[in-house]
Design a protein that fits this description.
It contains 14 helices and twelve strands. Bound molecules: flavin mononucleotide and S-adenosylmethionine.
């Protein structure tokens, strides 16, 4: 398990990434009674309306009672049988729609059974087991197979077992084993206060998740050594000392290289994890860099800088409000005559992956008109570890004009 990484919008516990619905089970490896006990225990402690615990389970374990297991398997939809036949345990979940004491209808019984079911599946994931819930079965056949009383509703059958390699999944399902998993964006599933107003996560959450999930060296923007555009601009401008801000420093490679050139470097990023990894990189390289966790859109920095380097940050902001907040920070942090070295995605770059903001020289001149002079703008590239085809970039030197 674990190969099905989530593309998350905020960092979550590993367990949520580790649970997924495989169709590749190891038919030869039993689930131990201790493992089953732990899974059922997790289900047992699920919350329920009025503490009714309206769920029940029928555990059919091929290794201890093949007949019971076969009867449940036979009740599954044919398509499910194709892969579920390799799962050594099939668990039928059921719930009762009336409160035991009052006899009143319990309209939450299915909701509660679902909570118990996911608790069971997450505990299975914690144990390194694979689970796959199913709704595709003949309800009467499952009832018949398990002897479930008439007042109990059959909700699902959970296949449980040890995961096997993706190639072992039956043919119609093999590709699904390795396909990327996706979900609706949180803005679609969560509303802020009232239906129709999307709930938006803070930008920092997405970056934090990205840096926690992926080793810095694997990130598409990772570039060991100083970016050639930045190096050339510093040479052309004759800049070799001064207070320099590496804005949105990410893995910190640029900050380290810039400190090595003799600049007094402050490096900031919105992601705590990025800053921690950049700090470790600088320590290892013996580079003297001051690191700060800081949001450029709401910056706590206040010292003036002689140079700000932005390699891949401005293009993250496509909304006018965010662009205005970015510009206000840069205007405040740069003294007149100082430089902003800006590298961003080019308008001609059409790849779906990548930031929302893409610009040409005219865009930058217009967007930075208030407080900046566009000194040079040239077409360039972003070359990273995974970019077989370099991505089109725009590199700009902007000078802060007097207010
Ligand atoms: C109530 C329920 C019924 C489901 N029924 C089936 C099913 O009959 N066959 C199947 O292959 N998957 C079934 N699934 C699995 C879902 O397709 C799966 O959970 C969903 O695609 C998300 O994938 P993930 O669990 O890997 O995150 C069911 C899941 C639930 C919760
Ligand atoms: C494309 S990466 C570039 C990282 C780094 N400059 C480099 O060249 O390796 C963009 C960086 O901007 C940071 N970032 C995004 N939004 C930010 C914000 N509002 N304030 C500060 N940093 C931000 C991200 O965390 C990420 O590290």
């Amino acid at each position: 398990m674990g190969q099905q990484r989530l593309n998350v919008q905020a960092p979550v516990a590993c367990l949520f990434a580790e649970r997924w619905s495989t169709r590749a089970f190891d038919a030869e490896k039993p689930v131990t009674a201790e493992q089953l006990a732990a899974c059922l225990e997790a289900a047992r402690w699920a919350p329920s309306c009025f503490g009714e615990e309206p769920w029940r389970f029928v555990v059919a374990d091929r290794f201890s009672d093949e007949g019971a297991w076969q009867r449940v398997l036979d009740a599954l939809a044919e398509k499910n049988q194709l892969w579920a036949q390799n799962a050594p345990v099939l668990i039928v979940t059921a719930c009762v729609p009336t409160f035991a004491d009052s006899g009143q209808p319990n309209r939450w019984c299915e909701y509660d059974a679902g909570q118990a079911a996911i608790s069971l599946c997450l505990q299975a994931a914690e144990l390194g087991l694979a689970s796959h819930q199913m709704g595709g079965f003949d309800v009467d056949a499952v009832r018949e197979a398990t002897g479930l009383p008439g007042d109990w509703r059959v909700m699902s059958v959970i296949a449980l077992g040890h995961p096997a390699t993706p190639e072992t999944a039956p043919e119609p399902f093999r590709d699904m084993e390795t396909a990327p998993r996706s979900r609706k964006p949180v803005e679609e599933i969560a509303h802020a206060g009232r239906w129709g107003k999307p709930w938006r996560p803070p930008a920092a959450c997405g970056w934090e998740a990205r840096y926690r999930e992926t080793a810095a060296e694997q990130l598409p923007w990772f570039h060991e050594g100083l970016d050639a555009d930045i190096a050339r601009a510093l040479d052309d401008l004759g800049l070799a000392t001064g207070r320099l801000l590496d804005l949105g420093c990410g893995p910190g490679t640029q900050a380290v290289a810039l400190a090595g050139r003799g600049f007094t470097v402050t490096a900031s990023d919105i992601s705590e994890t990025a800053v921690a990894s950049a700090r470790a990189r600088a320590e290892k390289a013996g580079a003297n860099v001051r690191f700060v966790v800081d949001d450029v859109l709401d910056s706590g920095l206040d010292e003036p800088f002689d140079i700000i380097v932005d390699r891949g940050v401005f293009h993250c902001f496509a909304e006018p409000e965010a662009q205005a907040a970015y510009l206000a920070t840069i205007r405040r942090l740069l003294a007149p005559g100082s430089y902003l070295l800006l590298k961003c995605f080019h308008k001609d770059e059409t790849s779906e992956m990548g930031p929302p903001g893409r610009y040409d020289a005219d865009d930058i001149r217009r967007l930075f008109a208030d407080g900046f002079i566009l000194v040079t703008a040239r077409d360039s590239q972003f070359a990273g570890p995974q970019n077989d085809t370099p991505l089109k970039a725009l590199f700009c030197i902007l000078q802060r004009s007097p207010d």
